[in-house]
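REQUEST ID: PR-0412
SUBMITTED BY: lab tech R.K.
PRIORITY: routine
TASK: structure prediction, single protein chain
INPUT:
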Amino acid sequence: MKKYLLMTFALLFISCTPQEIDSLAQVVTSFYPLTYFTEQIAGDYVNITQITPDGIEPHEYALSTNDLKAIETADLTVAQGGAFENWAEEFYFGQLVDYSGLVLVYSHEMDFVLNEENLLDPHVWLDPVLAQEMVLLLSDYLSELDPEHAPEFRTNAEAIRAKLAALDEEIRAGLSSCQTNKLIVTHDAFSYFSSRYNLETLPLLNAADFDEPSLQELKDLADYAKENGLAVIYMESLENPEVAKVLAEEANLTTLVLNTLEGLTPEEKTAGEDYFSIMRSNLTNLKTGLMCQ
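STATUS: complete
OUTPUT:
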């Protein structure tokens, strides 16, 4: 069995050191979308451990001793990369664990988007079309990890890809007749989604920098909302809502959630929410803010 550290659409670390495992392959995932897609593909054939706890921002999470042990003993570790998880970058530079025989591979499936500040947007899973490529990539590496169950992995992956394709069509239809395509978001996480569905997003915070906006920036955003007749500002479910509330009060806006799916809240998990139900909730809130028919 080979040991892998896979950085989806960014970096791939492969250790060639064989290791013995229990009856199930051990797979570590860094955060919710990778966990969800891996679970849907692998079914009961692997044991999956998620690093980032529910309700915690992956950007902000620091590995515990138990996390390090889980990764060291895993057969496959899946992380997003692209500066999304600080610990994944530290793995690459050998600052956490001394991996031998590592190979760095850049994915040729797609290019990351850089914003105006040349900061990377890693949020590819928010685009259902690109999420299909994530699923395909995960299926390939699970199949290499466990060839005996490769047919099941590929069948499950195609089922998820079909659901993602249907979600893409649903979003296109839902946003096809709206009074505006402009929206204000607290976090610049929607480059791929906006590009796919012809939306113009104005963020309070960029994709990787979480400094709060200045008073002048808040005023400019409030003016933008008034000039474009916008009634809503979108906030994340895991973030502190105070910045959004300040702007909402300044510009007389309503706040709605546009979930980046970086993790489930305890309430969402208890309610049985998943990637697809939350993406559809996002669509409902977008249709409200964009005044779609």
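NOTES: Residues 150-174 form the longest helix (25 residues).
REVIEWED BY: pending
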